[in-house]
Amino acid sequence: MGSSSSKSGKLVLYYDERSAPCRAVLLTAAALNIKLKLKRLDLLAKETLNPDFVKINPQHCLPTLKDGDFVLWESRAILQYLVNQYGKADNALYPLDPKKRALVDARLNFDAGYFHPRLGAFMNKFAAEKVSDEESVKKLGEALDLLNTFLEGNEWVACETATIADISLAAGVSNLELFEQCKLKNYPNVVKWLQNCKKNLKGYDDANQKGIDALHAGIQKLMASEN
Q1: Each residue's pLDDT expressed in tens, for the chain with a length of 227 residues
Q2: How many CB atoms lie within 10 A of CB 12?
Q3: H-assigned helices in the chain
Q4: How far, in Å, CA of 92 to CA of 201, rounded?
């Protein structure tokens, strides 16, 4: 494990900082001291449909990682790859112990299959109508309630220390600080955990908060528009 290519910036990340999955990759790179060559594509302007990018990733989604001739998309797979390829032999971010790794994978699957789709539905509804309906708020609340349960008596979502599952979920949950409808205060374990993430995830301000601020600016612009 470990490679000089990761330190010299030969890893290329196609990203949009407003995207939670993209920020999860940035957070993981920061945790591993990986220098990325960043290539920003504007999702709202549909720059991912540029033919040159489609040649790289026919699914034309972000984030997309290019490591030499190797190309990978789907953020959680990228997080796993970065730790496996460039982390220490047994990195706490994605431990080798089968039971610990299984818990990390379970929480990543929860994020990908349950939480993130509900987060997306909530935010897409807001983007379309400047408000999210009761149904999308309810479904998102169900996901937050489960996360709150996972965190009962636990500092982190999977293991005794932060893992890529915390990184992936934190990037998404932090979006919700911008929306009063979510009432994060109703999920005290989630609130405490998110504060731990802010304090303990390396590079949080640069890798995640800047993207949140850009997302906030976009929301404010949307709310100020006539349509």
Answers
A1: 454 344 445 899 999 999 999 999 999 999 999 999 999 999 999 999 999 999 999 999 999 999 999 999 999 999 999 999 999 888 999 999 999 999 999 999 999 999 999 999 999 998 888 888 899 999 999 999 999 999 999 999 999 999 999 999 999 999 999 998 899 999 999 999 999 999 999 999 999 999 999 999 999 988 887 55
A2: 17
A3: 4-7, 20-31, 51-56, 75-86, 98-110, 116-129, 134-150, 164-173, 188-200, 204, 210-224
A4: 13
Secondary structure (3-state) at 12: strand
Could you tell me how many residues make up the chain? 227
Phi/psi of residue 12, each to 5°? -105, 130
125 CB contacts (<8 Å, ≥6 apart)? Answer: 131, 132, 133, 136
| pTM tops 0.85 | yes
Q: Is 174 in the active site? A: no
Q: In 3-state terms, what secondary structure has residue 190?
A: helix
Q: Which of 3, 6, 19, 132 is catalytic?
A: 19
